[in-house]
Amino acid sequence: MGRSQSLLAALTACLVLAGCGSGPSQVGAAVLFADHEITVDQVQDLLDKAVREQPAAQQLAQQHKLDLVGREIVRQVVLHDVLARVAQREGLVPDQQALDQFLADDPLAEPVSGTGADPSQLAPQVVNRVRDHREVIIDSLLLQALGQKYFDRTSVTFDYTSVTSDGGVDRRAKAIDKAEQMAAGPAAAADVIRADAAAGERTSVGEVVPAAQAPDLATLVLFGVPPGTVVAFQPSQEQQVWIVAIVRARDLNAPPSGEQAMQPSPAQLAAIGRRLLQPDVDQAGVRINPRYGVWDPVAMNLAPSSAETTGAVLPVKGAAQP
């Protein structure tokens, strides 16, 4: 073999192994972070445990839907890792009294039967039970603490347009296409919104939403991206409308508005805390093994493929990112 052929073979081997540089390789890794990895074997061990111990997982296996559990394991592993870093940075600790009470009662002790349940709703319940229960409960309490810390201090400003009719085109595809148009350049979003307003679409410019006034909205992707980002998402599965928006400002130190809605529930606070992790997932350099799908920042979840994500997150080309 000549020198050039040897070099080509070496380079090819590097590509197969996902890079010759330092740091972990995607081979054998379920999740790669910038500084460490979660292995496929670790995920498989939890998956095997789920099938052994949880009737719901056995039911999903019979339905050939065990991939839902695999993706949920990876999702929870990613969020657990990022949450631990954020909690340390923010000085958050779980409420000890609540932790002791949960551990004493252990709501995760009973297996999930899964009879008649939506398969997509079963996977989180199954994975919560096969992970370390103390770890799961601490994660939940830390998410609530993070949501509580920023709930009345967070505000976003955005401009948006909407996709309310399909016109023979899939609404998701139309919304993502519109998001790509809006992200094409610094002035593109304003041009698209102006044209849509003239065409009778529902649009708005300069919307300011404090999280304290809208706890449910504070769980959406709008609250998890930096200024100069375009997002496309469906706010509610019950309604067919899609929103395509550009975030103009995101403030985590906004003064209280004095118009706070009802105190959010623990579930809402946890969902707000989870959304606040979104920038840190990006900064952690998370890479998912394709066997488990792709990271979907809109849902803070895994999708089977890029064609099945719940929306889009696109930085505006040519715009300065904070």
From TrEMBL:
This is SurA N-terminal domain-containing protein. It comes from the Bacteria. PROSITE patterns: PROKAR_LIPOPROTEIN. Keywords: Signal. The lineage of its organism: Bacteria, Bacillati, Actinomycetota, Actinomycetes, Pseudonocardiales. Residues 1-29 form the signal peptide.
